[in-house]
Amino acid sequence: MSDTATSAGYMPRTQEITTFRHALRILGELDIKRIAIRNQIPIDSRIKRRGELVEYLNDIFQQGLLSKNIYNEFRQTAFNPEPNTTDGFFQSFDADLAKINIEELSEMAKKWNDMENKPVDGIIEININTDGRCVLTATRQIEKFAFDARSEVSTSYYDETQMSLEIDFNRKVIYYQTTNSVKFQTIKTLIRQFLIFIFEDKEIKLFSPRMSQTLTYTKIKEDNWSVEDYRVSPNTIKILDLLFELNQTTHFDDFECIEITFDHEDVQNQKKASKIHRQNYGGDNLLAIDVVKNLILSNRNILEVEFKLTYKEPLLDGNFKRHYITVGLINEKGYFLRIYIKNNEHNLKLVLARAYQDLKAIFIEHFSAKELRNEETIKITLGLL
User: Fold this and answer.
1) pLDDT per residue over 356-369, tens digit each?
2) How far apart are CA 68 and CA 46, in angstroms?
3) Which residue has the higher pLDDT, 282 or 63?
């Protein structure tokens, strides 16, 4: 058994064994194999059928030969309300972590669930809570009404919204896994009230990443006398820094911007945002053309960007299989950041889901960082070096 799969001394409890069996019953064979391969769980070549694979995994789990992280991955995948979703919303929050003990999060969630007259009616279920990273399921029921024109009376019903989320308390980042903006709006209200409850702080707010660092540059004009000042907005710097970080990882390369939308130079005219597509510029990477560079250097904010990437899928032999994906980013300034993969090929569903997990991990890690990680690359791209 590989080091990745094992965890010395970890023996599952009876409840965990039952949950693991339940998860394997829910998951399809491809999902099970994908998790096994990624975690380097050796599978005997004589195992051909799904039932044999499930029995084998149950056996080695009960023997303590699988790590708790692997157990959590099977559980999280099986009970996710929107499995294989390649879309989601990111927000930050500001709170004093010294006020709570993250290890007691499950107990705090139980207190919330049992509380009467909550400010927002909803249930929080903690699925994973490890090293300041929490994966949870949030459920909210909202009363709605329907009017019957024939009987001229209204009836009420409850609409349930459920979502899987990830909160990184150390980085103060929340990831909402959903393709539905209405669901996001519904659940983020519940999450804010839950954070207010556990931190006992009514001032907690949810927002998009804040970047205080600005990038300014003064250039001497050709007359060698007058100067020209450039300033890049903190918002745009943050987006560029996140994007360039993708090329620094082992999973992605060949970043290429194909569409970009800026806010209007007149703040009263935001409906006239400037959208630029590479087809209008010979199919080049838009970050390499002067029109885009000049807009960035004119302190304009990036609202949306679409880019192509190569995703390197790890294989068992240590090599990579390359897949070309298209990723979109929506920046709702001061509110949220949304990241999604546009590809929808059914035969690549699991690959795209894995690519999004790697993409999400990068954004969570760097989302709230206030310092620039790729300042030199940004300056070179903009022609400032």
Assistant:
1) 989 998 888 888 77
2) 26
3) 63
Nearest to 366, CA basis, from 87, 196, 175: 175
**pLDDT band (50, 70, 90) for residue 7:** very low
Quick check: 323 and 310 in contact, CB under 8 A?
A: yes
Residue 157 has what pLDDT?
80
Tell me which residue has tokens 């899928």. Answer: 313
What pLDDT score was predicted for residue 3?
Answer: 45
- State whether residue 96 is helix, strand or coil: coil
* pTM score, whole prediction: 0.79
* Three-class DSSP labels, 289-317: CHHHHHHHHECCCEEEEEEEEEEEEECCC
CA distance 292 to 333: 19
Within its chain, how far is the Cα of 76 from the centroid? 15
Q: Is 133 helix (H, G, I), strand (E, B) or coil?
A: strand
Q: Name the pairing type of β-strands 215-220 and 206-207.
A: unpaired
Angle of helix 50-62 versus helix 14-26 axis, rounded to 10: 160
List alpha helices for 246-318, DSSP H: 290-297
- Residues 9-20 have pLDDT tens digits of 478 989 889 989
Q: Select from 143, 145, 148 the least CA-distant residue to 159.
A: 143
Inter-residue contact 41 to 70 (CB < 8 Å): yes
Query: In this predicted structure, what is the pLDDT of residue 127?
Result: 85
The Cα angle at residue 22 between residues 18 and 27, in degrees rounded to 5:
150
